[in-house]
Design brief:
The protein is of the alpha/beta class and 492 residues long. The protein is built from 15 helices and eleven strands. The structure holds glutamine. Residues 127-130, 158, 177-182, 210, 317, 430 line the site of glutamine.
Length: 492
């Protein structure tokens, strides 16, 4: 029943209601697909027994007429989300065998609405990366390949496992976290939809913290409509997260297919960066033409502080990470490596438990927060952040409803191809996405075409705070024009 794995959430929802198949069958088809796709390394933990039990319970609720909005929908959960009784490691050695005794608010809301857990997906260690190569559990191989080539490609990161799973039809949808682009960039690399909601829209409670002022949870789906369905369940006020915002969650699905006539779309000129490929440029023009044809008005805008976003992000994010990761000391949970005394134990545990990229971030973060450098680096980066936010506010004040930009400066690259000698090469991937986290805005990445080598490319839409609805309306226009993208299956 492999066709069950090709359904959208919307179609699966209808099929379950009409009893065309059961939730148990839907879950089993996915469990089977996951087993056959182990070569992708998208999952770090498969939970087939839980999937069977949860889908059986979903079938009972469907029969009783008490089904929730996601009843029986099989999902993959990024390993950054704590799942009660299910190992959660953030793909770090330091969290070896950590089994949370609580559930993250966001995943809890998905189960509340009837969804089914298939397993935990691979990510860059502590979500630090853009290729999923920093994971302690090994790299993820993208389901996509360049035409006529067997070179393994990265699925993007940090939510590489979630993106690969949804793209390869191993789950109907997945969760991700996005601190600087970790949902939108892998979505673009794998030809699917990824949404980073407004900061404060989804609770961060129970998500392993990377950079708390930037982290947001969001969904990966194969269609814009499915993204809207997922976000409705994931979003909402949570008193356990003090940065969560108490605004009613709209029916996002109602915004899908809504006319975009008269919407004013900003094209920020600073996003035409040096060295950007001609194909990306062409795609951007194409996106603009699609929105225009649907009745939107295109306006050239300026976000003058864009060039400072990446350097400022790589100060703010490591600073917060160095503080958040101070809690991993080998005392209460996770890895413990013995030492001559307690300090020796801390040192050995942290040196042995954190990977190279995480150690680099902790050192950068500690440096920029240290007494002598705080003003020069951290404080300045925070000021830059305020200016970046103000750039967007100025545009929105002038009546701009959303911005259209490319999602990434290139298509997916090969495993091992980038960042080996110079980490900045990898950091440059985030050039179009970090501004959105710095400003706390919502962003969506929608697949918009294939490059000359047959790899997917995405367009990004950036919205006003808490106006995800406009992004869904605009995103649907792009999806309607561009179509959908599925990788040719080369794995078993
Ligand atoms: N690639 C960025 C980083 O490495 C963003 C990661 C993320 O969004 N979690 O920090």
């Amino acid at each position: 029943m492999s066709e069950l794995t090709t359904l959208t959430i919307a179609a699966a929802r209808d099929g379950l209601k009409q009893k065309k198949f059961s939730a148990a069958e839907l879950a089993a088809a996915h469990v089977d697909a996951i087993e056959k796709a182990r070569t992708l390394n998208a999952f770090v933990l498969e939970t087939p027994q839980r999937a069977a039990a949860m889908s059986k319970a979903a079938d009972a609720r469907l029969a009783a007429g008490t089904a929730g909005p996601l009843e029986g929908i099989p999902l993959a959960i990024k390993d950054m989300f704590c799942t009660e009784g299910v190992r959660t490691t953030a793909c770090s050695h330091i969290l070896d065998n950590f089994v949370p005794t609580y559930e993250s608010t966001v995943s809890g809301q998905l189960w509340r609405d009837g969804a089914v857990l298939l397993g935990k997906t691979n990510n860059d260690e502590f979500a630090m990366g853009s290729s999923n190569e920093t994971s302690f559990m090994g790299a993820v191989t993208s389901p996509w390949r360049r035409r006529g080539s067997n070179t393994p490609l990265v699925p993007g990161g940090s939510s590489g496992g979630s993106a690969a799973a949804v793209s390869a039809h191993l789950a109907l949808a997945a969760t991700g976290t996005d601190t600087g682009g970790s949902i939108r960039q892998p979505a673009a690399f794998t030809g699917i939809v990824g949404i980073k909601p407004t900061y404060g829209r989804c609770s961060r409670w129970g998500i392993v913290a990377f950079a708390s002022s930037l982290d947001q949870a969001g969904p990966f789906t194969r269609t814009v409509r499915d993204g809207a369905i997922m976000l409705r369940s994931m979003a909402g006020y949570d008193p356990k997260d003090t940065t969560s915002v108490d605004i009613a969650v709209p029916d996002y699905e109602a915004a899908v297919g809504k006319s975009i006539k008269g919407k004013r779309i900003g094209i920020p000129k600073e996003y035409r960066v040096d060295g950007m490929s001609a194909e990306i440029d062409k795609l951007w023009d194409q996106g603009r033409a699609w929105l225009e044809a649907a009745g939107a008005e295109i306006v050239e805008v300026s976000l003058p502080h864009t060039k400072y976003a990446l350097p400022a992000y790589y100060i703010v994010a490591p600073a917060e990470a160095s503080s958040n990761l101070a809690r991993y000391d080998g005392v209460r949970y996770g890895l413990r490596l013995p030492g001559r005394d307690i300090n020796g134990m801390y040192e050995n545990t942290r040196a042995g438990g954190f990977g190279k990229e995480v150690r680099r971030r902790i050192m950068i973060g500690t440096y920029v927060l240290s007494a002598g450098y705080y003003d020069a680096y951290y404080l300045r980066a925070q000021k830059v952040r305020t200016l970046i936010k103000k750039d967007f506010e100025d545009c929105f004040d002038q009546g701009i409803d959303a911005m259209l930009t490319p999602a990434t400066p290139s298509a997916a690259f090969g495993v091992g191809e980038k960042g080996g000698a110079d980490p900045i090469e990898m950091y440059l991937n985030d050039v179009f996405t970090v501004t959105v986290n710095m400003a706390g805005l919502p962003g969506i990445s929608v697949p918009a075409g294939l490059d000359g080598q047959g790899l997917p490319l995405g367009l990004q839409l950036i919205g006003r705070p808490f106006d995800e609805e406009t992004l869904f309306s605009l995103g649907q226009v792009i999806e309607d024009a561009a179509g959908r993208f599925t990788p040719a299956r080369w794995w078993a």
